[in-house]
Each structure stands twice: as structure tokens, then as C-alpha cells.
Amino acid sequence: MSTATTTPASAEKSAVGTAHTRVEGRDKVTGAARYAGEVPFADLAHGWLVLSTVARGRIRAVDHEPVLAMPGVLTVLHHGNAPRLDTDFVGLLGSRPDPTCAVFQHDRVPHMGWPVALVVAETSEQAREAAEALVVHYASEPHDVAFSGGRTDAYPADGHMPAVTDKGDLDTELAASAAVVDAVYTTPEEHHNPMEPHAATARWDGGRLEVVDSNQGTTWVRGELANLFSLDPAAVRVLSEHVGGGFGSKGVRAHQVAAVMAATLLQRPVRVVLTRRQMFSLAGYRSPTTQRVRLGCDADGRLRALEHRSLSLTSTVHEFVEPSAAVARAMYDADAHHTANRVVRLDVPTPTWMRAPGEAPGSFALESALDELAERCGIDPIDLRLRNEPEKGPVSGLPFGSRNLRACFHEGARRFGWAERDPRPGLRREGRWLLGTGTAAASFPAGAAPSTAVLTAEPDGSFTVRIAAADIGTGARTALTLVAADALRVAPDRVRVRIGDSDFGPAMIAGGSMGTRSWAWAVTAAAGELRERLDLGADIPPEGVTVRSDTSAAVGALAQRERHSFGAQFAEVAVDVTTGEVRVRRMLGVFAAGRIVNPLTARNQLVGGMTWGISMALHEEAVRDTASGGHVGADLAGYHVATHADVPLVEADWVDDPDPDDPVGIKGIGEIGIVGAAAAIANAVWHATGVRHRDLPIRPDRVLAAGQGAARA
Ligand code: MOS
């Protein structure tokens, strides 16, 4: 059922589908691979950002004079002296820039942790000391950071999709239903916390701006910087060779812009690195959500009514929508079907994409509600889902490209041992532990975006692939090596893949689970053309034979169908009745997520997402202090994430599911692993204890407070 059965496109031995260690793995473990904050430059100066200490107001004065006299200090940039930026544009991903990135343009402070100055010095230590000594005077104003489902100032907001979809009469269908669920679910503010902090070095080199950065797309960052600084994009080069995690947080942020400003002013290389604490204000995050789900079904489990309404927050300076209600638009149909994404504007930093934006919190609510409905109508939770498998996109009306959710549940149930499960809650006890199992469905959109690849046949018989891809830890560089090898019909060791350089031409970002697929498409197209050229018997000159692909036209055809990856999540938990601690004992995820290019790194991606699901279910929660407007414990001591001892046996596997319309069969696997994982755990906690937890994370105090009755019974 896994990759062994994936049929290669040709009869030749296929590299795609074969486990392959990372091609840059040795460089990474020996330290030879340089990350953005450690690439050496002669004459390098260091910038340190100063962030506001009030949550709303105006900057009255920046006392830069005393700081300029401190050792090594070169300059202090702030709104009073910084160059003007152009923020009136729509970037490559279709959004206007978040004004948070356009640093030092005015005296207003819209949230705690807003960048108010950059201190540049000869060394990082000098810059930090001076930044901490810089006195900034504020005229503080009352702020409002209180997020709740009861906000009367919330409004429907589109983001990248319609805010509202509406079909049928909910009240009528709910009234006619045999079983009904009406529940509110909440998820907290969550942060990406990639292992490598954001870092950039900017310098001018022969009339071109060069930025060595840690990002999810050099094309994207180049475009934003060119727009902000009114530069010809050809005069900007962005390099991002190795990236220690991104998860949606690594686009254009304040540090690159501040570094470019300072490098321009000083005419020497300037590096700006964010601290872990600064990342809590400047790197984006996942908005908290409050979601109301109403479901109604017939006695046989068929859904008559489905309503999913989500509220998230955004800042006062930029509208970002966490589209949690959208997951219902692809998963389940009903006679009355209503979804809505709403936001409220608060004095907080702007949230952003974070792994499975929308689907991660949305699936927690929806897949928990399905479990509650299964309980209420006495139908097995897997059965209930399979009885509601839609024939076509419930809202789009489009046929699915492929929808192999059934196969995921069948295979998952078999391997997890679901058939032996007693559905009654609160019955299994092992000493002080109550045991339970739960399941949930997962889905994530599968798409591709235009990209260009440049392939060169070298005179020595090797091949060089150049593409502005980003390997943010996914193993993209290795995946593209395998894809190129197959497309060229050579062994992978004859292919070298160079990525992370905007000079290679425009390419999709590592985002939306679309990176590897989009780049593989471009690489395959270029390889096909190169093979034709070589088959014609062309002699290879010293400079090689080079072709360039552009998939802009090809990927357009995908819009004819609704395209998703799917998955079935399973979890077994143990709940300590004395302490309220929840421990995950095992997880299994079975996915239908297109052809799997590299089983080794694919498993990493899926297990990584599922592990994050454990973290989301049990640990992660950024706490905002309403009095100050800032975070409590904005660091990895105060912000809990699942670590090794929290993560037991987590298995991920897949069913054969090649995308028929993709040249390699890929769909994308970056995000689906987290989708449904928290719901599977919460559903298992209910099965263990008999108590529903509708607020994440499921902390020990919540388990104890909610579960007294069940625990004593
Ligand atoms: Mo991902 S949240 O699309 O980087």
C-alpha cells in the first residue's frame, strides 16, 4: 500500500519513489553549510532592532545622541531619519505588503513589539548593548488586545478566498435532523518558532543590491524589496541557500528591510538577526480562533446541516485572515451548508500563514464536531465520515482531481486496529491512566504555481539544475535531484541542483504545499526539452547546453477540478486522572497525497506535521497580557512545544495516489500532516475520559477542572 507499489512512469529504474538521504546532509551535519546569519563578509556591520515597549501610541522622541557615543556604534535609524519606502503595490503573491515590514516610516505604534529603531555597530554585541540603552519616549494610548468570540466589531473578511459561502436553510435542516451538534471550539495564538531565527545580510555590490537571507522564496523577497525600495528587480539579488525552517513565517520581514536601509546608508554590508523573543512580535504567528460548528444529520448519519463559522484576529495595520471555516468547503456536503470567516482588528502584530493556515485550527473544530455527532447518533466515527463522502466539491461543484480518503481510512483502520475498539468512553483504565483512541480526517489543497528552471548538460556528462526553489528543511533539493534524474534518465549522482538564488529566474515559494510540485514541474519540462536537444546529437560545448522552462501556461489547466490531498489520522492517548496530564502513546497517519518523491524526507514532513499536531493539541499557547498588550513568556521556556519525551511512536504512510494531471504525479505534503492531528488527539481524550475538550491546548488544569466527575467515577 505504500511507495513500493508506486509504478514508475517508465520501465527504467526510477529515482523518484526511492529513499534518498539529503544531498546537502553531510554539509549540514559538519557545519559546512552556512546559514544566513553566519555567511562571512568583510567589513560587516551589525544591526539590532529596537521594539516598542507600549502597545499603542506615538513615538515622541528617540534619544539617539547618547547611543551614538557608545563603543562601535555607527548609526541609529528611526522614523525621523529613515529613507521613505513605497508600500503602494500588490506583491507577487497577490497581497499588499504588511506595513510592519515597512520600518520607520511614521511615529505611530500599532502594537507592542513594533520596530521603532535600528542600532548599527561594528559588532553584534555593541549593537545589542546600544539598542538596549536607547531611550524612546512614547505618548501611550489605550490599547485593546482582548480577543473573544463575543466581539461585536468582527466582520467577514475574504483573504485569499470568499469570506462566506451559503447554501440552503440551516434552521430548517437542523430542525429536521435526528441528531444535532452545536459547539464552540477555540484555539490559542500559536507561533512558528523555526529553529533558525530570521536573519539577513544586505550589501551593495557593483550597483546591485545583494541580500543573503533565510526565506521561503528568493523570487518573492526580491520582488518585495525591489518594490519597497523602488528598485529595478534586476538590480536586486536575494540568496537563501540553507533555511532552518520557515512554516510560513519567512517572507519579507522588518529585519531585511532594516538591513537594506542601513547597508545603503553606510555603504557596507549590514546584518540583522532577530532574537527568539523578537520573533514573537515580528515573524507573524497563527491567530487564535473561536469557531462555532453546527451539524445535523439523519438517523443514518447523512448530513442535512453544516455550519462552520470562524473568528480570528488581525492587526490594525494589515488584514490577514486565518480561513478556518474553509476546510468544511472541501470535506463534507449537506443540504444546508454555511461557512464564514470573520476577523476582528486589535492592537496586536499581524498574524500570517502558519503550517496549514485555516485547515489546522479549522480541522480541530470540524473533526471534533464530527466525532461528537458520531457519538450522538451511535455511528462509528469513520463510518460517519465515509457515509458523507461527497461526489464533487461541496461548494465549488467541481469534480475532484482525485479523492482517496476512503483508502486512507481503510488502511489506517486496519493498521491501527480500529475494529477492536469499544466506542464507549471512559472504560479503559491502566493504573492511574485512562486510555482512549480517536480519529479524524485531513485535507489540504493541492496546487501548482508557475516556475522557471534552467538545466545545463555539462561537457563532463553531468547536469546542473538551477531553480529559485527554497529548501526550508523539506528536502526539496534532494527531491528535485531525483525528479531531474528521472526526467533526464540518468542516475541522481549525475545531477547537481542549485537553488535559493533569485538570479535563476522566477519560481514558486516553498509554501502552500506547492513548492516541490511547482519546481518539479518546471524541472521536468526543462529536462524534456534538454533531452530532445541532446537526442538530436548535439555536441556539448565547453559552456554546456542550457535550456530554460516556464510552466506559466501549463499549470493553468489545474483550475478545472477541485484538488486536495487527504488523510486519516489516528491517536491513542493516556490521561493521568491524578495530574490531568495527557500523553500520546502512538499516532498513525495514512495519507493520499500524490506520488511520493522521496519516502525518507516525505515521512519527515508528515511525521513533523503530526508531531506539531501533538504540540497543538497539548502544549502550544502564546499568552497575551491584556494589561501590557505584550506576551507573557515570549521564549521557548514560556512557550511550550512538544519535545522528544512528548513524542512517542508516530507513523506516517501513504496510499498510492498519483495526481493524474501532474507530470510527476505529485500533490504536495508540506502541510497535511498537521491537519486533523489535534482533533484525533482530542477525540481520543474524550474516548479515554468521557469529557470533551473544545479548547486547545488540553492542559492538565483543564483536564482536572473538566474531568473531576469522570475521573472519580
Ligand atoms: Mo506554508 S504556512 O504555506 O509556508
Q: The CATH topology of the largest domain, please?
A: Aldehyde Oxidoreductase, domain 4
Mean pLDDT level: 96
CATH architecture label name of the largest domain: 2-Layer Sandwich
Tell me the overall shape.
Answer: globular
Largest beta-sheet characterization:
7 strands, mixed
Contiguous low-pLDDT stretches (5 residues minimum) are 1-9
Radius of gyration: 26 Å
Structural class: alpha+beta
What are the distinct ligands in this entry? dioxothiomolybdenum(VI) ion
Question: CATH superfamily of the largest domain, please?
Answer: Aldehyde oxidase/xanthine dehydrogenase, molybdopterin binding domain
Question: How many runs of DSSP E, i.e. beta strands?
Answer: 27
Count of alpha/pi helices: 16
The order of strands across the largest sheet is 3-5-1-13-10-11-12
Briefly, what CATH class of the largest domain?
Alpha Beta
Q: What percent strand?
A: 15-25%
Instruction: Provide the domain count.
Output: 3
Helix content: 25-40%
Termini distance? 43 Å
Task: Describe the 3D structure.
With 713 residues, this protein is of the alpha+beta class. The chain has 3 domains: 9-33 and 448-555, Aldehyde Oxidoreductase, domain 4; 40-356, Aldehyde Oxidoreductase, domain 4 (2-Layer Sandwich), CATH 3.30.365.10; 400-446 and 563-713, Aldehyde Oxidoreductase, domain 4 (2-Layer Sandwich). The protein contains 16 helices and 27 strands. The strands form 6 sheets. Strands 3-5-1-13-10-11-12 form a 7-stranded mixed β-sheet, sandwiched between helices. Strands 7, 8, 9, 14, 15 and 16 form a 6-stranded mixed β-sheet that branches. A 5-stranded mixed β-sheet has the order 17-18-23-24-27, with helices on both faces. Helix 12 (476-488) runs parallel beside helix 13 and helix 14 packs across helix 15 (677-689). The radius of gyration is 26 Å and the shape is globular. The protein starts with 24 loop residues before the first helix and ends with a helix. Residues 1-9 have low confidence and may be disordered.
